[in-house]
Amino acid sequence: MQTVSDICVFASVQPLDWSAAALDVAVKVLCSLGAIMLVMCFAGLSVVAERKVCAYIQGRYGPNRTAIPVVAAVPLIGNFLKKNGLMQLVADGLKFLLKEDPLPAHVGKFWYLAAPLMSLSPVLIAACVIPFGAYWSDGQLCPLSAADIDVSLVFALAVSALGVYGAIMAGWSSNSKFPYMGAMRASAQVISYELTMGLSVLPVVMWVAHSSESPLSLFEIAKAQGGLWFCIVQPLSALLFLVAMFAETNRLPFDMAESETDLVSGYHTEYGSFKFGLFFVGEYGHMVLGSSLFIVLFLGGWNPFPGVVWPESWGWAGALLSLLTFIVKIAAMLFLFIWVRWTLPRFRYDQVMRLGWKVLLPLALANFAAYLVFMSF
Amino acid sequence: MEKEFTYPEPASLEADRLGEKMILNIGPSHPATHGVLRMKLELDGDLITRADPIVGQLHRGQEKMAENLTYNQFIPFTDRLDYLAPLCNNIAFVQCVEKIAGIGVTERCKAVRVICCELSRIASHLVGIAAYGMDAGSWTVFMYCFTQREKLCTLFEQLTGARMTTSYARVGGLARDIPEGWLGNVNSFANQFLPALDEIDALITRNKIFIDRTAGIGVVSPEQAMQWGLTGANLRGSGVASDLRKDVPYLGYENYEFDVPIGVNGDCYDRWLVRIEEMRQSIRIVRQAIEKMPDGPVNVADPRISLPKKEKVLRDMEDLINNFVLVTQGPDIPAGDAYFEAENPKGALGFYIVSKGGGVPYRVKIRAPSFVSLSAMQEILPGHHMSDMAVILGSFDFVLGECDR
Question: Which among A177, A259, A345 is the nearest to B204, CB-wise?
């Protein structure tokens, strides 16, 4: 694998061969776009899935009327898309784009406008280090990711946590009480659950450190799950990470930041049209990212079943299958997110904090300590 | 020299001048307020230190309007009191008029009115717990409840021609007899409703998060509940076994077998449990009423009260005149006054009517249970978290149409 720095060294030695370097950069850009597209597609599709699954849970039909005139006329596909609400996705997106985009007079303009970007961009940046699959190249397993860095786990956790700045900036700059309270809750909650999240990952990293030189790499962690998956080896870590992930993504039962019954819609109350759309996509993108992290860390990454890996000899077919496996797993995780949201009631804010600090954090510490003791014998 | 008048600054009304406390206006358009209620909260951090419910946005002057309408003309206005249980309001109003006039309605009319009241109670409680569940963050409960309420609305439509604005009762009887096969539809609704209610119950009642949200929140002691004048499920949730259907039976409720569920702790969770159980008891009453539904007319045979049959009106001069007089001048109610309270889903809905004879009331006073429940909020809300407000408001299950009248 070549990195950008390699290219630079390469270019300085042989300054004439720019075309190879340009090609490499182009490939990297395309890879990044691919990763971003994957996350964005899932974010969009999960909006439709959310509406369809919740309708199914509640005994309704969900969106099944919206039709794009020409596409709906296509014999089989048109009806399929219409009935499954997939054209609703286009309609929703267009609505966000075409609506009037008012800028309230009482807001801090710079931060108000920057907040939606701040909410979405960390998700897309972090998506670039997720290994969505693997392929064999020169007898070596390589990740299907836009960037393969040694500390991708730390990078992904750190960057995705930046998303909360979007909530804080939105809440503060809106100069309004409900967004402000939503932002305060979001920041306190994310900081509390970040600790649990980090601590619950440590045993996994230590486990991988036995066999790999770079245990903080998501690729290495996923590769180490060719045998048993970490959700089987370390169920408590997996559970803690899952709960912390729900809290990080502000999903019910932890959606304190936008609990609509008391805070109207939390930190994005003052936002409308496309700016709201960015928050919306950011939230679902966060879910996709969280699911991907959980899959890489605990659900065996691109490996289909515990103890089963896609064989080396299958070549590019194996690579495609690994990507497909990952996609299926993301879909399953998103279903879990939706299922929980439409089943459980919402915690109260102080109960969330109590759960985070008094239950999950001690459990995570105990889990970590127990693992340390277990390792030393 | 005259002292110059200055308006007080808004902030000077507050005891706390440090700016540590925040005034937060919830409503009149806010998801937690279930209508056009405005709550003015004073918050210390996340804790409520003062709460002022500001009501009246939906005031339509119904009591005054009643003074210019005949008794039967006022019935559509009672639909708009507690618009989630219009049948109960219709019946409570005409019961009060009948009390002044000393009219005893027929047995069949009583039985139909009982079915209407109990179905209405179920419909109202369904919306109550649906909104309550939604306040606690559970949307699925909301949809499950509304699926059932939809079926009830269909039944009401078959009976009265309208889903919500039913205007079904008349002084001395009912607008019309029940349609053919309607009792069978009610029965099949009852049969499928109990399993559905069990499902709603299983989904949320034993949920740890829901119990954490509601148990020990918004506690009202029995003494407080009686002092504040709470009635209905809110009073029974505090452990006072008071139900007008048992205490002062009307419509022949003494002939039906049913239990009055009461709470123990008087918190939000108990009010939830009481409402769920009351729906089961209502189904019990409905089944008994269907079983012994008497035959006969639904209107009293008094030409000063009841309209003549339509066929007769089209044929006979006397009946045409009678119909004209009754419609234009209203049923002839003797002078006198009466207070009647009915056990409505939201609590005891009382009508005090003064009649000076003739077809138009001299004065109508409505005692709205929602108004009483809301007035208790000043005492209940302080000391709770801001997020608890939604749950407490939901647990008291009020309707602003009735509160503001």
Answer: A345
